[in-house]
Amino acid sequence: LLSVLCLGDCQLHTSCGIQKCTADFISFTSHLNVALEDFDLEFCKALRAYSLCTYRNSKVCRGNLVYHSAVLGIGDLMTQRNCTKDGPTSSTNPETTHDPCNYSGHTEVREHRWGEKTPPPTYLFCGLFGDPHLRTFKDHFQTCKVEGAWPLIDNNYLSVQVTNVPVVPGSSATATNKITIIFKSYQDCTDQKVYQAMTDDLPAAFVDGTTSGGDGSARSLHIVEKVSGRYIEMHARHIGTTVYIRQLGHYLTLAIRMPQELVMAFEESQDLQLCVHGCPSSERIDRSSHLPLPMVGKLLPWGAAAHPLSGYTLETATTKCHEKMLVKDIYFYSCVFDLLTTGDANFTAAAHSALQDVEALHPSKEHWHIFPRSGGGGMGRDSKIFVSLGFLCLILIAYL
């Protein structure tokens, strides 16, 4: 049965993985006995695994005669044994059957290789919304100016850059009107894919017009449009990463979950990453543990310029935000701040959606809500989280 398969000649083609596919198939079938009742079942499972392996190597093995011979041989064997193309594959050796374009399967491979349990991968969350509020991978919460183009993420697998523009004249507050994401090429799972969103242009495709990366049904990277022109999701299975982008009013929000080991895979030259290190101190608005706010009947200074009246008082802004968010956490106070600063009610929806994205993507439920520092200088209800936005609570606590 194995006469159509080759091992020796394949060693001349190191860039083609057909030798490994063949060796795995032989490993799966070497212990099988034709006389056993389940021979056909197990042999078909091994053939499907072999076929899947050749499919994943189709690009690099395109000009390899051994590869094409193996593909034909697999077809003949499947016909002889009445094997269906769809069905289970051999799983006696996870190291050889895992999907290299599925990050969640990598842990199983490591467990098999070393013969001991390894902890599941740690995932981190980063979000940007409003004018603009940043939640870093370390769960630090900051409000920043960062006008112009700034890198949120820049590692060996992914780059994310945002562009922020002023929200109201005479204010340091900015909001995001452009997002550029580069998924870097990764093995045979996907070529480099670039995505770009701008205000009133939130496409459900990459800049090359495609909606996925990877060959055929593998789709290791793909875009899902949830609300046309308003909300899209990007799922990158090969790097275990999920990205949400929304347009609310005239501005964009972003939320991302990514494995910690990939987040930290960057060079020294890539150290300017807002999601990793936060905003530079010179770009922080929430210095001195508070955010200056336009208050009831008067304006508090913010830099050298004063804000125009937003049309909201502290009371009306609080009531408006409370309609969407019942828990008075950082997201609630950011909503109040944005309303008092801009007068744009769309920022209420932005804060609410940002919290919903946290609940969908953040791996630790106990850290979904971040609470400002108490007036006494201690931490709020979640003492495990360092909150750099100790701001608004100090100003609003007397009113709430």
Question: How would you explain this protein's 3D organization?
Answer:
This protein has two domains: 17-81; 123-292 and 311-367, 3-Layer(aba) Sandwich (Protein Transport Mog1p, Chain A), CATH 3.40.1000.10. With 400 residues, it is an alpha+beta fold. The protein is elongated, with a radius of gyration of 27 Å. A hairpin with a 5-residue loop joins strand 2 (133-135) and strand 3 (141-143). It has an eight-stranded antiparallel β-sheet with strand order 3-2-1-12-11-10-9-8. The model is unreliable at 1-14, 92-97, 294-308 and 374-400 (pLDDT under 50). Helix content is 28%, strand content 20%. The protein is built from eleven helices and 14 strands.
Short description:
With 400 residues, the chain is an alpha+beta fold. It contains eleven helices and 14 strands. The chain has an eight-stranded antiparallel beta sheet with strand order 3-2-1-12-11-10-9-8. The chain has a four-stranded antiparallel beta sheet with strand order 4-5-6-7.
